[in-house]
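Problem statement: downstream parser choked on a complex file, so we are re-checking the raw output for the manganese (II) ion run. The parser issue turned out to be on our end (a line-ending mismatch), but while we're here, posting the original submission so the record is complete.
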Amino acid sequence: MFEKMFANLGKMPEPISIEEYISRQNELYSTFQSSDVLILCSSLETIHSNDVHHPYRTQSNLLYLTGWAEPESIMFATKASGTWKTHLFVQPKDTLKEIWEGRRPGLEGAEKNWPIDQAHSIDDVESTLIEMLSKANRVFHRMGVMPSIDELVVSSIKKRDRARQRLGTGPISVEDPSNKIAEMRLIKSDAEIAQMKFASDVSSLAHIAAMRHGGNNATENQLQSIIEGFFRYAGTSGWSYPSIVGSGENATILHYKENNSPCENGDIVLIDAGAEFRGYAADITRSWPTNGIFTEPQRELYQIVLDSQIAAINECVPGNPYTAPHEAARKVLAEGLIKIGIITQTLEEALDSKSGQLKDWYMHNTSHWIGLDVHDVGVYLPNGEPRVLQPGMCLTIEPGLYFGAWRPDVDCPQRYSNIGIRIEDDVLIGENGPVVLTERCPKTITEIESIVGNAI
Ligand code: GLY
Ligand code: MN
Ligand code: MN
């Protein structure tokens, strides 16, 4: 069922080059002193149920610096003879384990095909790290990822041996390197943008596939299966966050999870779903009538949300504070709701964060950074001031309106009862203005009405 969509997708981009990983490593190491060491651990595997693991996903910082995605791995870096070297502990080759669990690159594979100077067996981690730490001064290590390594680091700092007594050697502090790496990750390179564009294209076509399947007494779970089926069909690893597929009143629940109801004729279905490709996320929301025709009240709200989203996207220009899109979206939403009589306050009153009526119907932020994490890293208010947008930053623009008639905290107007609408795109801050990475996903009322239920 996906052949035609797939034929339209375009080629996968080249993977990120070894040279780019090495230049990221060197950029990070240039912020360290000679006696510092860096340790980055992979995520632990987690259990779904007896003998069954959750699909494995490593730490994004490790992916960012090495591209290495295997479990039970630890990267470390030290400066020796004037040069920084990148080391990686990996699972060694083991035929019996590989028969059961899958092939491993092993030490040789890691050194040959990844940006690694020296690979070590994970079985030697304790002795090697203890020796390495004994010569370190500051240890850049994020606590809480791999508890066994936290213990090693802490005990090496606590240790009071003869070398420390006589020579003053041994580590004295632990610092989290996450902020340094986050600053780098905030600005995407051309190669990263190519990965994100592919994830965005796959996700856009997946949303179109679901729209085409609509109008057919579809259920939320069926729409989910089409979207996620295309994610895998197109060669991505699957979703970058669990898909939200909510129709009717379920569309008014921001993080709806069940995805199990039938879509009633005439209801809006809200689908928030994005693929992950080589670790990079897409994050798209579309909301559309399951029978392919917006009712008048749905049309009114949809157009307000779309106008606010476009106003917010237009603020995605270098030099603007990251809050500018949110402010633009809120203003257009409030103006729209005043016009249709839902908000009875003045514009200024409506926008007040405490007493304004807008927050009854729009209660979340408009944007988050996006990249290797769907809610990507990067401080929003460095030194308490809103981050200034720069070329290479990527963020979502996702305003919405949610009229849950089930809510006891508001008096939901009957005309808009149980309509939930969010429109979400992923936007790159380009030198000359916004670049919508998810532009292949249709969002005007005319486009949506011509696609929903129109199978190809
Ligand atoms: N899909 C999660 C979000 O939109 O932030
Ligand atoms: Mn989002
Ligand atoms: Mn989303």
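For whoever reads this later: The longest strand covers residues 83-90.
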